[in-house]
Amino acid sequence: MLDKATLDLAQKHCPDLGLDRSEVLTALAAMLHGPLSKINPFTFSRPNLHALIRNPLYTHFFAEIADLFLARFDPANPLPNDAFTSQSGKLRERLSTLTNESARLALLKFVDAVELTLRTNFFIPSRYALAFRVNPSLMVPEEQKQPFGAIFVHGKAFDGFHNRFSNIARGGLRLVSPNSAEQYAMESSRCYDEVYGLSYAQQLKNKDIPEGGSKAVVLVNLEDVNQSQRHRVLRSSVRGFTDAVLDLIVSPVSEHRVDHLGFDELIYLGPDEQVIPEDINWIIQQAARRGYPIPAAFMSSKPLAGINHKEYGVTSEGVAVFLDVALQKNGINPYEEEFSVKITGGPDGDVAGNLMRILDREYGNNAKIVGVADGFGCAEDPAGLSHSELMRLFHAALPIVELDPKSLSSEGALHIADTEEGIRMRNSMINRVKADVFVPAGGRPSTVHAGNWKSFLDAQGSPSSPLIVEGANIFITPEARTSLFKEADVLIVKDSSANKCGVITSSYEICASMLLDEREFLEIKEELVEDVLKRLRELARLEAELLFREYANYPGALPEFSERISRAINRAKEAVRLALADMQRGDSTYIELLPLFLHEHLPRKLSEVAADRVNERIPLDYMRNAFASCLASKLLYKEGTHFLESQPSERLASLAMEYYRKEQGVQHLLDTVASANLPDKEKREVLDLLRRGGTRSALSI
Predict the structure, then answer these.
(1) H-type helices in 145-294, by residue range?
(2) 407 C-beta neighbours (distance < 10 Å), count
(3) Are residues 343 and 355 in contact, defined by beta-carbon separation less than 8 angstroms?
C-alpha cells in the first residue's frame, strides 16, 4: 500500500533510509506541500521537496527527523517528552545554521510537523495508509481562525485531509480527481486550503444543529490510471482514507498508539462529490468491524437506513426557499410572474437536478431555466429550456449534453465540452447568459474569484444576474462577493445560509441512527422524511426572512449579514455549551431542557417513536451541544443578530436559559387568552402583541 514516491526514495534513490523512514518523509512532504508552497510554489513543489530529501547534503537531517518521529510514537518504547524536546531543540539549532534558505525552511517545517503530530497509526498492524492527527496550527497561520483538529492521511495514489472546528462536528467527504499532472500539482498545493474553506463554510452553516463544521477532501492521483481502473482506484482511496482515520479514533488499537492528544474523538462524515452508495455502505460496515461506537452514525445518507440527499433533494429544498424569499424581496412574485434562472450543475447532480425539479413543482412555466452548465457542457435558451426534457435527464441521471437539441428554440444552443470552443462556451455560460437569478449548484470552489469577477459584468458594468443564490459551497470567493456588491449591486445569498439544509438532514439522520435500528427506521422512514422536509423549509425560511430583514434595516452587504447570523448563533452556542460542561443526566437543568430537544429539535416522528431512548443512547456531550444549539438558534431567529451581538459573552448562557423560561410563560398566556371569552378583534390584537414582543418584554434586561 506504499505510494510510488516512497518506493522510489527507499529503493532507488536513498536505500539507506529504508521503507519506514521513506514513508514518513514522503508523507510529511505531501502534508506540508500546501503551507510551504505559500512561501514559494516552485521551490517547494512536490518533486522539489522529494529532490531536497534525496540531496546528499540534507538526507541525514531528514533521516534524523524521521527517526525522531518514529522514536516519539514507538508504542514499545516511546521517547519521553523531555528527551524529545531536548533532541528536537538541538536539531533545530543545527538546522538554523544552514545557509541554504530553502533547505532550512523545509527542514524546520518538517520538525514542526513532528512536534505538532499528536497521534499516528504508523505502528498499527495491517494499516492501509499513514495517518497523522496534528495540531492545526501546523497548517493554519496565526491570524486565521484556528480549527479544533486536523487529520492528514497519505496512501497509495491519494492524500487526504479532514478538518473540523469543534470536537463534535459534521461535514462531507469528497474526492478530487484531477485529469492531468499539472492539475494534480495545483490541487495538491491547495488541498488543505480547500478543506479548511469548506469546513469553515460548514461551521457557519451548521448553526442550527449540535455539530460544528468539518470537511474531508481526498485528492486522488490518476496520472498512471487508465479508464478501466479509475473506479477501483477511487474506491480504494475512500477505503484507505477512512480506515486510516478509524485507526486514529477507535479504542481497540489504542495499545499501538502513543497518545499526545489526551481525549477520545468522534468523527461524523457524510457523502460529497464522487462518493457513491457503495462507499457509504463499506464505510459503515468497516466502522462496525473496527469497533467505532454507533457505527451507523459514522456516515450519513445511507442508501436504505438513511435520508439520501439526492433522492429527497434536501439541500435543494433549502436553496429553493432562499431563492423564493430573495425573488420576492427583489420585487418578483414567482407564483404569479415569470422569472429567469441560470444554474451550474447538471440535471444529474444532487443540488442542481433537484433544484430544477423543485422549480418545476413550485412555479411551473413561470420558472424559465435559460442556462445550465456542468462538467460535460452547457445548454442555453433565452426562451427557457424544456422542463419536461430537463426532468427526463434528471430522472435518468444524465448530464446536460444529453439534452435533445430538438427541444431548443431557434435561439437556443447546446455546447459539448470536448473541444476548445465547447469548453470556452461552457466555462463562460455564467457570464454570457443573462437571467434574473444565478444559482451555482455545482462546480469547483473559487470559480468566481478576485481575478475574474469582472467577467460577470457587461461592457456597461451591469451584472448578467442581479441576484445570486449560492447553492454550491464557496463557489464565489469573499473578495469576489464584495466586489460584485460594491461595483454592481449584486445581491448574493451566501452558501452558509442557502446550502445549510443538507447538513441539517445529516444531523437528523445521525440522531435516528443512535435511536433506532435499521428495521425500526425503515418502518417510519417515509413519515420521518416528510417531517424532516417540513422542518428544513421552516429553518430555511426563518433565516431567509431574517437575512433580508436585517439587510433592509441596517447598512452592509447581504453576505455580511449571513456571516453575522452564523457567528452570533455560534458564539451563543459556545457560551451555553461551556456553561453546561458540568451538566449531568437527571439534574435539574437537563430535565428542564430535555423537552426543548425532543419537541423543537428532533423531527416529530422520531421523537414520537424514540423519545424514551434519548437518555440511554445519545452521548451526554452531544446532548450538551444540542441544548446549546436549540437555545442559541431560538434567541437569534426570534430577536435578530443585533440583540445577540450586543450581549456580553458571559451573559449569553444565562440569557438563553431565561429566554427559554420566559417563552414558556408567554405560551401559557397565549393559551389562556386564546381560550378566553373576548371579542374576536381584541383577542387577535392581544395574541399578536404577545407573539411579537411578549418574551422580549418579559426579560429582565
Answers:
(1) 181-205, 227-249, 277-290
(2) 17
(3) yes
Cα–Cα distance measured from residue 508 to residue 502, given in angstroms and rounded to the nearest whole number: 10
Domain over 121-299 is classified CATH 3.40.50.10860:
yes
Burial class (CB in 10 A: 0-12, 13-18, 19+), 314: buried
Determine how β-strand 117-120 pairs with β-strand 130-134. Answer: antiparallel
Q: Which of 316, 304, 308, 274 is nearest to 158 (CA)?
A: 274
Give the model confidence (pLDDT) of 60-118 as tens digits.
999 999 999 999 999 999 999 999 999 999 999 999 999 999 999 999 999 999 999 99
Contact of 149 with 192, CB cutoff 8 Å: no
List C-alpha distances in Å: 290 to 52, 100, 183, 306, 577: 38, 46, 35, 21, 30
Q: Is 676 exposed, middle or buried (0-12, 13-18, 19+ CB in 10 A)?
A: exposed
Q: Do the Cβ atoms of 505 and 536 come closer than 8 Å? A: yes
Distance (Å, whole) CA 678 – CA 672: 11
Who's near 574: CB < 8 A, 6+ residues apart? Answer: 628
Stretch(es) of the chain classified as CATH 3.40.50.720: 311-501
Residue 171 sits at φ, ψ, to 5 deg, of 180, 165
- Residues 655, 699 contacting (CB under 8 angstroms): yes
| 569 grid coordinates | 448563533
Beta bridge mates, 344? 373, 440
The CATH T-level fold of domain 311-501 is Rossmann fold (3.40.50)
Q: Where in the chain is the domain with CATH 3.40.50.10860?
A: 121-299
**What does the pLDDT look like over 138-178, one tens digit per residue?**
999 999 999 999 999 999 999 999 999 998 898 999 999 99
> Could you tell me the maximum CA-CA distance found in the chain, to the nearest angstrom?
94
CA dist., res. 516 & res. 557, Å (int):
44
